[in-house]
Amino acid sequence: VSQRFKKTFMDIKERFSQVFPQMFGGGKAELKLTDPEDLLSSGVEIIAQPPGKKLQQLSLLSGGERALTAISLLFSIIQVKPIPFCVLDEVEAALDEANVARFGKYLHTFETDTQFIVITHRKGTMEEADSLYGITMQEKGVSKIVSVRLQEVDMTSLKN
Amino acid sequence: VSQRFKKTFMDIKERFSQVFPQMFGGGKAELKLTDPEDLLSSGVEIIAQPPGKKLQQLSLLSGGERALTAISLLFSIIQVKPIPFCVLDEVEAALDEANVARFGKYLHTFETDTQFIVITHRKGTMEEADSLYGITMQEKGVSKIVSVRLQEVDMTSLKN
Amino acid sequence: MELKKIELNGFKSFADKTTIDFDQGVTAIVGPNGSGKSNVIEALRWVMGEQSARNLRGGKMHDVIFSGTHARKPVNIAEVTLLLDNSDFFLPIDFEEVSISRRLHRNGESEYRLNKQPCRLKDIVDLFMDSGLGKESFSIISQGQVEAIFNSKAEDRRSIFEEAA
Amino acid sequence: MELKKIELNGFKSFADKTTIDFDQGVTAIVGPNGSGKSNVIEALRWVMGEQSARNLRGGKMHDVIFSGTHARKPVNIAEVTLLLDNSDFFLPIDFEEVSISRRLHRNGESEYRLNKQPCRLKDIVDLFMDSGLGKESFSIISQGQVEAIFNSKAEDRRSIFEEAA
Ligand SMILES: Nc1ncnc2c1ncn2[C@@H]1O[C@H](COP(=O)(O)OP(=O)(O)OP(=O)(O)O)[C@@H](O)[C@H]1O
Ligand SMILES: Nc1ncnc2c1ncn2[C@@H]1O[C@H](COP(=O)(O)OP(=O)(O)OP(=O)(O)O)[C@@H](O)[C@H]1O
Ligand SMILES: [Mg+2]
Ligand SMILES: [Mg+2]
């Protein structure tokens, strides 16, 4: 059991150190075992260093940097242990436009391995979608689905 | 003391029932004392009903509806007990464009009573600002201030 | 394994029967605040066997039944059906196509079906658990939860890696 | 009472002396993720007397001192100065213009000034507390905190109304 934990940890650790700089356009990050001697109960520490900055505790990162670090870790985990589908509800809310663009493009690196369903208000994410559904409440309080082309998206639902 | 609490509560309660529909473009909301007989220890319940919907517990509201309800309550409180300045760090992150527009316009109803400092990624909020400062890190890891006109805003910092 | 479609009927704000088809790749769901997007995600959680009303933002499980509007009466049944392409047999069940249904009556009665056959909630929960899509998997990240991966202490995070293992 | 300007020097990512002038009405602060916007808000909290490093996202108070980059050495002092227009005497102090300064040395020494005169942290905290701008006021809503007003139980919420009262 602890051997399997260790192998999985090492694989995710390696992936995370590659995914993070791809998401941030640079910088580095790593996962560390708090107690490498004790594989049965060691915790996992996350160390992140956005491009050009010094290594600092996670708490000092900005809202957007934390969200992008969490997304990088999530993507690393599902690259090591693929799941057939992944549903993301507004996970990129805190990201600025440049980071949303990298996030959106990265979704496609999973190709046919993972089907992504993303709820989003962000134009950048919508532009990366293969198909787009709009949910509306033309009748108040009652949801309906419409299939949309990007140009038709109701601008009031976009976050600008 | 409990008389003063009651007066303040009633004033905020009245304001909240007016601010909420202004923010939501309709609907209604109220504040209720959990124990009107016991002013010294009664709690406060928040009941919110977005336009066209039935009254429901706060937890069932959407992310954006909850944020807008919280903002409406905050605005009600500072209308009853004015503070000279109010600093908001990305409070409108969960709002769609239509709601951001109402939020941005509402900031001006305070006129000279309250000075607002808002951190935002949202174009709608920026358009309502009287002055705009950009923070950049041209030198990595070192923040600098620039005063900007809206057209010059670095598009990568916008949330779209 | 792929999600093919989900059908919501009387589930939260989906008063009428509504179908969403899922294609390969990236599907984006958009719409104004409060329009029902997160409700779709909760319908997926629910039909996959979610047992906690709090994870669906409700106080009781029957909060998921459409409760009416000013212009519409409430309904008495919430039903969600999920159709999956299982031609790679990712789910440990001997069917190339798997249909899962869950129904809740306002009187509290529940019904569960696997490929149209009545089953127990446990059968649905186990199906996903055994294929690594259980509660601890990262198959669904809810609104506001992306940073949950950090909030836990370093010791708690290990469960992420244990689940993945 | 109005904020006139804030000056940051060596505070978090503001390695160099930086001044922001505040005008009447609505001032918006914009910029990319991680550029330093929330750091400005924390500088305001800090100079107003914030005593908890955790409320500034740090582990210890000296986490607010610029800690260097690959290209720049760390500095040893963080300093923030706030200038306020007090011509309505909203702050209970007999000055039409109030300047508040806070300095922290890496060795742990702190200095506080009110209109250039050395004072104690308590004097600054009391100045704002007595004018209704204390910790319980809504003068600063931090990133991610807008819903904090809901998370408390109904009983805890009453403190909002007591503070306002
Ligand atoms: N049982 C129910 N019956 C009717 N309406 C319901 C029920 N449960 C929830 N709702 C409504 O569904 C709406 C919430 O929908 P949802 O959370 O899916 O919105 P959303 O599209 O995700 O919005 P946002 O962009 O703000 O996150 C609320 O307005 C709520 O009142
Ligand atoms: N003591 C310090 N020395 C140097 N840099 C620091 C220090 N403390 C924090 N920082 C840096 O400041 C940055 C965070 O800035 P801030 O939180 O203000 O960003 P932001 O503009 O609000 O971003 P977002 O839009 O993502 O919320 C982090 O990258 C962090 O590394
Ligand atoms: Mg939602
Ligand atoms: Mg910030």
Descriptive report:
The complex is a heterotetramer, with 2 copies of chain A (160 residues) and 2 copies of chain C (165 residues). Chain A is α+β, with helices and mostly antiparallel strands and 160 residues long. Helices cover 36% and strands 20% of the residues of chain A. A two-stranded antiparallel sheet of chain A has the order 1-2. A two-stranded parallel ribbon of chain A has the order 3-4. A two-stranded antiparallel ribbon of chain A has the order 5-6. In chain A, helix 1 crosses helix 2. The longest helix of chain A has 23 residues, at 2-24. The termini of chain A are far apart. With 165 residues, chain C is of the alpha+beta class. Helix content of chain C is 22%, strand content 27%. The longest helix of chain C is centred in the N-terminal third of the chain and has 11 residues, at 37-47. Chain C is globular and about 50 Å long. Chain C starts with a strand and ends with a helix. The interface between B and C is medium-sized, with 19 and 18 residues. The complex binds adenosine-5'-triphosphate (2 copies) and magnesium ion (2 copies). One magnesium ion binds at residues 37-38, 143 of chain C. One adenosine-5'-triphosphate sits between chains C (12-13, 31, 33-39, 63-67, 143) and B (50, 53, 56, 60-65, 94).
Number of helices of chain C: 4
Residue fraction in strands of chain C: 25-35%
Distance between the termini of chain A: 48 Å
Name the helicity range of chain C.
Answer: 10-25%
Major β-sheet profile of chain C = 6 strands, antiparallel
The end-to-end distance of chain C, rounded to whole angstroms, is: 20 Å
**What about the largest sheet of chain A?**
2 strands, antiparallel
Overall average pLDDT of chain A: 89
Biggest interface pair, counts: A-C, 71 and 63 residues
Shape of chain A: globular
- Please give the oligomerization state of what you see: heterotetramer
Rg over CA atoms of chain A: 18 Å
Q: Note the overall shape of chain C.
A: globular
Q: Tell me the total number of β-strands of chain A.
A: 6
